[in-house]
Design brief:
The chain is globular and about 65 Å long. With 332 residues, the chain is α/β, with parallel strands linked by helices. It has one domain: 3-Layer(aba) Sandwich (Rossmann fold), CATH 3.40.50.1820. The N and C termini lie far apart (82 Å). It has 14 helices and 8 strands. A hairpin with a 4-residue loop joins strand 1 and strand 2. It has an 8-stranded mixed sheet, sandwiched between helices. The longest helix has 38 residues.
Length: 332
């Protein structure tokens, strides 16, 4: 009886301390978020799109503007903007729900995203021609934009892009992987609310998981992490991956882009080898990627493939210099 009482008491103390720690991390996160919102202004400008403000950021100068549409959950343009700005003007923006942009109740799918992008470019006064860079999921959006406004697009770069032929016929193992990602995004919403994501970021866990992040300057990493610390970032990721099949069907109409120059950058593999590779459907994922990249080259009669031999799916982190090199070639 005495041992049971001692165990119950220890359990109560442990649970009590957990609540105290979570209360502290939550308070720390929200106070710091409030201070950041008041003291650290966004690097670009905010434009109202029907009641929701979208943040965009331009840098550099040139006769063509590079417009980057980020990957699902990514705001990697902040890593690339300084180098690209040495060549020409760059335009990056935080899709609604990310970064400094407001969240929107509207469906997070390519059709809606492209509608918002068209309004944003017009209201921001960003004149064509555009070199569109679509990273992963962003490839859907730049394809659909080109379908609607071909006269505004000078060329397209798809960085390990997606194609509906592969994405709408995923094997069971890859479908389960997608659900695993979705569950991780949903759990991370709670982690964001409780301040745990910020704590992990401050401890350098992001760089531990992806050491290549250390090549980017601390300020660009700070801007990217700022978004990941907020629950709305993870909620938007979950909404985008939930609507991924809808986006794939929406982009089916953009399967003939004429002779617009199109460069498809293909990574060596989706996942880099690790201790946990045996848990992942590596072969199935790469088989789907081969189908996807074959189809991407059919989108334009003026297309070619560039191999990123040292990259996982995240080419913009593993080999960002390759993207800059391709942009330089297109402009020259």
């Amino acid at each position: 009886m005495l041992i049971r009482l001692v165990n119950m008491n220890n359990t109560f103390i442990f649970e009590h301390y957990k609540l105290i720690i979570l209360s502290l991390t939550t308070t720390y996160h929200w106070l710091l978020s409030y201070w950041e919102n008041k003291q650290k202004l966004p690097p670009g400008k905010l434009i109202d799109l029907g009641g929701y403000k979208v943040h965009y950021y331009t840098k550099g100068a040139g006769s063509q503007t590079v417009m980057i549409d980020h990957s699902l959950g990514g705001i990697e343009g902040y890593f690339l903007i300084n180098e690209i700005a040495k060549i020409t003007q760059v335009f990056i923006y935080d899709r609604l729900g990310y970064g400094w942009s407001d969240s929107s109740p509207k469906k997070r799918c390519s059709q809606e995203i492209v509608r918002e992008l068209g309004q944003l470019l017009e209201k921001a006064g960003i004149s064509p021609p555009y070199i569109l860079v679509g990273d992963s999921f962003g490839s859907y959006n730049v394809r659909l934009y080109t379908h609607y406004f071909p006269e505004k697009v000078s060329s397209i770069i798809l960085t390990d892009g997606l194609h509906e032929k592969g994405m709408l016929s995923l094997p069971l193992s890859v479908k389960l992987l997608k659900l695993f990602f979705l569950s991780g995004f949903l759990m991370s919403i709670l982690g964001g609310i409780l301040g745990l994501i910020r704590i992990l970021g401050n401890l350098g866990i992001f760089e531990l998981i992806k050491p290549q992040l250390r090549q980017f300057n601390p300020e660009s990493r700070r801007m990217v992490k700022r978004s990941f610390y907020r629950p709305k970032h993870w909620l938007t990721m979950a909404r985008e991956i939930w609507n991924l099949e809808i986006s794939a069907r929406q982009v089916q109409k953009a399967n003939n882009l004429g002779n617009i120059p199109l460069i498809s950058i293909k990574s060596k593999t989706f996942f880099k080898p690790s201790l946990f590779s045996f848990l992942l459907p590596v072969k199935a994922t790469n088989k789907i990627r081969d189908v996807i990249h074959e189809e991407l080259l059919k989108l334009s009669s003026n297309s070619r493939q560039v191999l990123a031999n040292n990259s996982s799916h995240f080419v913009w982190i593993d080999e960002p210099e390759l993207i800059v090199k391709v942009i330089h070639q297109l402009i020259n």
